[in-house]
Write a structure and sequence with these properties.
CATH superfamily of the largest domain: HAD superfamily/HAD-like
Largest sheet: 5 strands, parallel
Number of strands: 7
Keywords: Hydrolase
Number of helices: 8
Organism: Acetobacter fallax
Strand order of the largest sheet: 4-3-1-5-6
CATH class of the largest domain: Alpha Beta
Pfam family, one: Hydrolase
GO molecular function: hydrolase activity
Protein name: HAD-IA family hydrolase
């Protein structure tokens, strides 16, 4: 992961980039859809949609299965289940190393398609909640990734020109959003090394 010399801020996606919450979300979504929606969705279907915001994912479920869901109830149940299992979440060691190396040198932000409650719980679980001066989540923007809104908002809150921000991402939607915001985008997938946070 190379960081340009003119970098003034680093912005990190959360799920799949800083922490490995994707297995937790998979189990939580499956349980919520089974218990609230009355349908079974297999793991492969979810994995193909990694990086989707909640409403995008549920819209795709409705389209794929030809049903209408109680979205608020399913989202609430999913978030609750993720929070209940977040304590042992694994962190992405190479990305966390970057966070620790740059903390205090430039401002750091998180820009996530996840909910604030889960993002903050994830960061607290790995001991990094206080490291980020800005946390922007899906509740803060009208248009989720791949729209650039969430990254532009993070840069605005940091007070940094988007052109001088470097984004760390693990999804096609997130990388597209960062580039559309005029930022340098680092794909962390080739260097993912998840371990339980200590």
């Amino acid at each position: 992961m190379s960081i340009p010399a003119d970098t003034e801020a680093l912005i990190f996606d959360c799920d799949g980039t800083l922490v490995d919450t994707l297995p937790l979300y998979l189990r939580a979504w499956q349980a919520a859809l089974r218990e609230v929606g009355g349908i079974e969705v297999d793991a492969a279907w979810f994995r193909e949609r990694g990086g989707y915001a909640e409403q995008m994912l549920l819209a795709d479920v409705e389209k794929s299965f030809g049903i209408t869901l109680n979205r608020p109830a399913i989202i609430a149940a999913t978030r609750r289940r993720v929070r209940e299992t977040i304590e042992g979440v694994r962190c992405n060691v190479p990305v966390i190393t970057v966070v620790r190396e740059w903390a205090g040198r430039v401002p750091l932000a998180v820009a996530s398609s996840g909910s604030r409650e889960v993002v903050e719980a994830s960061l607290a679980a790995i001991g990094l909640l206080d490291v980020f001066s800005v946390i922007v989540t899906i509740e803060d923007v009208e248009h989720p990734k791949p729209a650039p809104d969430i990254y532009l908002l993070a840069a605005r809150k940091l007070g940094v020109d988007p052109a001088h921000c470097v984004v760390f991402e693990d999804s096609h939607e997130g990388l597209k959003a960062a580039r559309a915001a005029g930022m340098t985008a680092e794909d962390v997938r080739p260097c993912s090394e998840f371990r339980v946070a200590s």
